[in-house]
Amino acid sequence: MKTDLRQLPKARLDFIKPMLAKPAAQLPAGSNWVYELKLDGYRTLALKQRNVVTLFSRRGNTMNLHFPTLAAACAFLPNDTIVDGEVVVLDQSGRPSFSALQHSRFTPDALYFYIFDLLAYQGKDLRKLPLTERRRLLEGHALKGMRDPVRLSAVFNHSPKALIAAAKKAGLEGVIAKRADSRYETGERSGAWVKYKTNKGQELVIGGYKPGPNGFDCLLVGYYEARNLIFIAKIRNGFTPALRREIAAKFGPLRTSQCPFANLPEPASARRGEAITAEVMKHIQWLRPKLVAQIEFTERTEGNHLRHSRFVALRDDKAAREVRKETAYS
């Protein structure tokens, strides 16, 4: 199929909410699915209009000041074009490092923009075209003149089993499967795209902390079930003294006397170590639930507790209200 661009509607040349992938316990198989690696970075849209490139975060914030080299590198894009991709920092082994990206612990030559979709091309809206046709236009037209640090995110035709095994071996975050005929569903998580995570971790909302050296002893985190914030873990590991101070500096305007968690207090027998009982709650400083943290862990218990949890980074690209329990892990 070759698209006559003249027949397509005009594009809305502004921020477009990105399409999202639904977590899955296994990847679908079949010739009607295509696969990409899940890259651990910042979801980013790039718009070029009137010879000016604007980078947008997943939430619609402009990112040009954060990534000026990438904005400059996207100058090759045709005018009135929008592409979708992921900004990552690659470590010395070539693996994406979200922690380095979030804390700017990288040299500019370690920063890359992997593009995987084309939403608008030369003023025409492509979102109702099937994925395979958007990719054809992306690879054959929109990305002519592309060079590092802008790259095309590869599509794989291997079996899901082989891709998952390769992702695990390489220490990558996971694999994404997309229906070959899928439209670009703005802001939706319809299931036409699904993600399989090979690491155990997810974003969680910070709702309070126990005071301690360098700002805090531990963070209290949870996720939303409908309108309720559910406490799930205390996070003590993964911090340096400097990182504790950096995070604590964000607490000031968020402090509140109201506990944001719907399932506290706990009984004394609720968890290993110190449970958040009514007595312990007297020593907790609560926060309005605005900050989102990336957390890794080794196991989620039957009691819905995290074992060996570890802080990775704050995620200012994710809205707290979007954070839900993820259960699809290998």
Verbal overview:
- By secondary structure, this protein is α+β, with helices and mostly antiparallel strands.
- It has two domains: 193 residues, DNA ligase/mRNA capping enzyme (D-amino Acid Aminotransferase, Chain A, domain 1); 122 residues, Beta Barrel (OB fold (Dihydrolipoamide Acetyltransferase, E2P)), CATH 2.40.50.
- The protein is built from six helices and 19 strands.
- Strands 11, 12, 13, 14, 15, 16 and 19 form a seven-stranded antiparallel beta sheet that branches. Strands 3, 4, 5, 6, 7 and 8 form a six-stranded mixed beta sheet that branches.
- A hairpin with a 2-residue loop joins strand 3 and strand 4.
- The two termini are 37 Å apart.
- Would you list the SSEs in sequence order as H and E? EEEEHEHEEHEHEEEEEHEHEEEEE
Q: What is the percentage of strand-forming residues?
A: 25-35%
CATH architectural name of the largest domain: 2-Layer Sandwich
The radius of gyration computed from the alpha-carbon positions, rounded to a whole number of angstroms, is 21 Å
The total of helices stands at 6
Number of discrete domains:
2
CATH class division of the largest domain: Alpha Beta
> Can you tell me the CATH superfamily of the largest domain?
DNA ligase/mRNA capping enzyme
- Main sheet makeup: 7 strands, antiparallel
Supply the helix-strand structural class: alpha+beta
CATH topological fold name of the largest domain: D-amino Acid Aminotransferase, Chain A, domain 1
Q: What integer is the average pLDDT?
A: 92
Measured distance between first and last alpha carbons: 37 Å
Helix content: 10-25%
Low-confidence segments: none
Identify the overall geometry. Answer: globular
